[in-house]
Design goal:
single chain; 259 residues; alpha+beta; OB fold (Dihydrolipoamide Acetyltransferase, E2P); 3 domains; five-stranded mixed beta barrel; 7 helices
């Protein structure tokens, strides 16, 4: 079996560009201004007739470098297009002004208890952390008008009085927004100020999966030792059964990342 590595350089260049530009989105436009012309010039040199000079190996090398430039430029272009939608101006402005906004979100992960406190109305109340998608934002100065957005966020909010939020639940709450570092999987952190209000239950195509997850977590809880607490987290991403002691031990052993 012979490995074909002709596209290996382009793949590595694309991955490297993704790593660099996602951490510094402002560089995406400048990178394109350099990479596209460089790739075009190198491709032109590689395609010149053989009589113009240069060995075959040189022409192949030029073509490979041109392909690397094109791959990196495509990644930079994708980041440049996606960056404004990932953190719209209305969210960026609310984060810069530390304004209290009304956020409408869709829950995307199982809530877990957290010690983080985001300035809720009840000091010392139980709080949860979960990932979500910010879908609407009403900020001061907009006359109560909500702006539709699609921003990946991590939410810190008061735990509901009833059953925990399930994946797919739509909630609304007054909150402050904080921008994360570029390259983070979440574009912003949302710190709830008051208890969330449930706007809509999960749709049917998610409700059945939530029931299945609940039954799996209940069955795992009957297993002996730490395995029963860890299994839901490993299988379905539900770390609600992992207590502070086990969480600390896992982080000390570097088996999970600190939040």
């Amino acid at each position: 079996m012979i490995l074909d590595l002709r596209l290996a350089g382009a793949a590595v260049s694309a991955w490297a560009a993704a790593w660099l530009v996602s951490g510094a989105p402002d560089w995406s436009t400048v990178s394109q201004l350099v990479l596209w012309p460089a790739g075009a010039a190198l491709a032109t040199l590689a395609l010149l007739p053989r009589r113009s000079g240069g060995s075959s190996l040189t022409r192949i090398a030029l073509a490979q470098v041109a392909l690397c430039c094109a791959g990196a430029a495509l990644v930079a272009a994708a980041v440049a297009v996606a960056a404004p939608a990932r953190l719209p101006d209305v969210v960026r402005d609310a984060a810069a002004r530390h304004a209290v906004v009304t956020a409408t979100l869709t829950v995307l992960s199982s809530p877990v208890e957290t010690a983080s406190f985001g300035g809720g109305s009840q000091v010392g109340s139980s709080r949860v952390r979960f990932r979500g998608s910010l879908t609407e934002l009403a900020a001061p100065g907009q006359g109560g008008r909500s702006v539709a957005v699609a921003v990946p966020v991590v939410v810190f909010a008061e735990a509901p009085a009833g059953p925990a939020f399930r994946i797919g639940t739509v909630i609304r709450l007054p909150a402050r927004v904080r921008q994360t570092e570029p390259g983070d999987s979440a574009a912003a952190l949302v710190f709830g100020r008051d208890p969330p209000e449930t706007v809509a239950d999960p749709p049917w195509w998610l409700a059945w999966a939530n029931d299945l997850r609940t039954r799996f977590a209940d069955a795992s809880a009957r297993l002996p030792g730490d395995g029963g607490d860890l299994l839901p987290g490993l299988a379905i991403g539900d770390t609600g059964a992992v207590g502070p002691a086990l969480d600390g031990a896992m982080k000390t052993s570097s088996l999970i990342r600190p939040h």
